[in-house]
Specification:
Length: 168
């Protein structure tokens, strides 16, 4: 087995939250599904988002300079697949679910577990990907968040059922 295959197999054992990363602006409205998102610092609040430079939408994110990290809930498996489907046009992707615009102008999924409205402050190229450093401008958190995690090449819904009482 080569190192790249072994790396991918090992990374499948590292659970990651699933998000839809969305942008809008002069270059147009685009979005993609990502699990490569993490916190960098809280002063100033900054996230890291990785995006393949060969993606159809890569240049649009760079040109717009803004994005919204829409953290998906356990109910969003189908939406995750829609935004991962390279055959769908941008307009088709955003016709699913309800979207609002936050301060940056980037699309925010109304039913997301959380939304991080960001300005792309910096970008580094590493291998096949761009690493966007995104300064958070605004945040929205669901009252009943449930997470969606990608682990062992499958989706897993996390979180308590909001209709069940918490344990004493």
């Amino acid at each position: 087995m080569n190192l790249q295959t072994e790396f991918r197999n090992a990374m499948a054992q590292l659970g990651s939250a699933v998000s839809v990363i969305a942008t809008d602006g002069p270059a147009g409205k685009f979005g993609f599904t990502a699990s490569a998102v993490c916190s960098v610092t809280d002063t100033p609040p900054t996230l890291l988002v990785c995006m393949n430079r060969n993606s159809y939408a890569h240049s649009h994110f760079c040109d717009n300079g803004v994005l919204c990290v829409n953290v998906l809930s356990g109910d969003h498996q189908q939406l995750s697949g829609i935004f991962a489907d390279a055959r769908l046009r941008s307009q088709e992707r955003f016709s699913h679910d309800s979207w609002q615009v936050m301060a940056s102008g980037a699309p925010a999924l109304v039913s997301a577990a959380a939304n991080f409205d960001c300005r792309i402050a910096d970008c580094h190229e590493v291998g096949s990907h761009s690493v966007f450093y995104c300064q958070v401008q605004a945040i929205r958190i669901s009252e009943h968040p449930r997470g969606l995690v990608w682990f062992n090449r499958r989706y897993h819904a996390l979180g308590d059922d909001p209709h069940q009482p918490a344990c004493p």
